[in-house]
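Hi all, long-time lurker, first post. I run a small reading group and we've been trying to get comfortable going from sequence to structure in the token notation. Rather than ask abstract questions, I figured I'd post a concrete chain and ask someone more experienced to write out its structure so we can walk through it together at our next meeting. Sequence below, copied exactly:
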Amino acid sequence: MEPTGFRREVASWLADNLTGEFARLRGLGGPGREHEEFDLRLAWERHLAAAGWTGLGWPTEHGGRGLPLDDQVAFHEEYAASGAPARVNHIGEQLLGPTLIAFGTPQQQARFLPKILAVDELWSQGYSEPGAGSDLAAVSTSAVLRDGEWIINGQKIWTSLAHVADWCFVLARTEPGSQRHHGLSYLLVPLRQDGVTVRPIQQLTGTSEFNEVFFDDARTPADHVVGAPGDGWKIAMATLGFERGVSTLAQQIGFRRELDDITTEAQRTGTYDDPLLRADLTRAAIGLRVLRAHALRTLGRPAGPEVAVGKLLWAQWHRGLGELAMRARGARSLTSDGAELDDWQRLYLFTRADTIYGGSDEIERNIIAERVLGLPREARP
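-- Answer (accepted) --
Happy to help. Here is the structure in token form:
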């Protein structure tokens, strides 16, 4: 298929700009590797912003370029294919930005959207708690309105990149005595204040991109609630819908690169001679094509069964890829030189979490069954 003019423009700009000090960023960052050259990746992201490569799908009245889905897909695919580094502003640009465009007040949009586009403020997502992970409706972090401010108390966990973020959008219970999906609000909370403590969590990979975040009388202005107080569940679910958009196609380009590299590693180590491994690598390639076809057919569609299963599909596929990496490496996958893990060991260990974070597979299936398909609720204690 002949590439479009826009796709050629993206590829050309990336080739011209991933040079000099930015050249060493190729392939860096991403899940389990967010610590890699973070400051330089932040500088790269601001370079992207200055050239107009952020907010591609945002409406022009909010500072974006208002590009159609085809062009957004082309950008994300070319970005990933170029080996450009993992983005540091994904949560702000791809999650909060569209949420504020859809539900924010004009004042909130004017305050926050320009700084997201320019990568002047970084964001994190305050959803999960020790007692409310995949079952998000069980959140207990509370906020009360007092003297023109929300006073927030509680704890969030698995908060990606909170240790480098300036702000966090927090799902908190603002109606005392409310339960489950009711009485929740979606608050915009500054993290650099005395009432907030961020503690990185060291993972199996030795890295620490997830965090515990403690709120002890943390404060944010009364008008930093998105939607009306009590509308938090609706807003939070809308944000999750934005999370599973065009950027998933770039994710799949990264998956393709990992699969190709694992195949090359198997050929190098001799494990490719195993017909069972070759068959499983072939199945993985077919599965990746299915993921792409599924993503393309659900782009821009409202939430439904097809959209809802997307996370289940890629999480299972990627966890299986981590296992293939170990088989391709053979016995060497079991040893380390005592320093850092190699790329394949890190991939294997981190993909153990793919079917847990963002909603465990078991909870995801219940949500799809009960709320999307309308099946009877599972028996609960």
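A couple of things your group might point at:
The radius of gyration is 21 Å.
The beta strands are 123-126, 142-146, 149-156, 167-173, 184-190, 196-201, 210-221, 225-226.
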